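re the bet — no i am not wrong, look at it urself. input seq straight from the record:
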Amino acid sequence: MTFLKTLSVFLGTVIGVGIFGLPFVAFKAGFFVIVLYFLFMASVVILIHFLYGEIVLGTKEIHRLPGYTEEYLGKKWKKAAFLIMVIGLMGALLAYLIVGGEFLFFFFSPYFGGNLILYTFLFFTLGAYFVFRGIKSISQIELFLLIILFLLLLIFFIKAFPSINIDYLKTLNLRFLTFPYGVVLFALWGSAVIPEIKEMLVASGLKNKVIRSNLRKVIFSGIIFATFIYLFFVFTVLGASGPNTSKEAILGLDSAVGGNIIKLGFIFGIIACFTSFLTLALSLKKMFWYDFGFSKNLAWALTCFPPLILFLFGIRKFIEVIGFTGAIAIGAEGIIIVFLYKEFLRKKFSKKMNPALYLLSGVFILGIIFEIVYFLIIRI
């Protein structure tokens, strides 16, 4: 049961708003381009998460990335890690607010009225409440919500299957070859919740060797399972919507499928966004709390309110938000984790890191370049 709970928290973090951007980038670049991205990036992400997991398990003190960075790389790197984590997590939480609020609006407004800001504020209020309550309340609902999520996805596929046109999956546009990178990386990333997983495993009373084994199993099975879910979703939405594929995936299905499938899609979207919002917000809250010494309540406020403020100031284009967050902020985080692991090995075990692991940094550097090129030259 402990494994299922930790896996559900990890999957609940990974499978979030990123899933809704994937069909659109697949439509732009091509379905098989997305498949290749996932095959490669899933391997990269698993390796990076394994490295970070070793650091988290091998350090007695309770930290988040900035705290580990200070311990092994020094205070200057801690500030850099803090800035990167804040940008990355704030970007993710903003994306959840944007799309989660839209799904609530599209689902409930025909019955109760109201505007988009009202429903976004409702999404925010519910999320902020559970983040205030902490990890126990989150872990208790994550498994339940995840089961509902998968059941909805299965029903969603069954309903949409008759409308799938394989020809929609055969398109290829090399102009958008770099476009999927940031969105795919964003969709697969879950490093922020690894310290939470460790806390849950330690609290369960397991021995150290079992904790390490379980953490690796959670990371590996979680990323692989998420990859299959994502590709399954892209196949379904792109296959049914084709040229009508919308940026948030669900609305574009209206012309192809229509009816109750759209409502089902909105429910699926609300749950997917909400579960990820909870776990990532909790991770950011604990970073302020553990690594920077803020009070628990102030850490909660600093976590929850800035994304809402950004939304109210008009930053509401979610593909751009997750693309930037994935390529720039998460890419930079991946680079830091590689060098953090190098120093971790040196200080803890007097070992040298395998030079091949530096190639992981190269992947993230190229990804950052891809994103810059896309925004400066290609941008849709």
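see?? The longest helix spans residues 75-112. told u. also The chain has one domain: 2-378. so pay up
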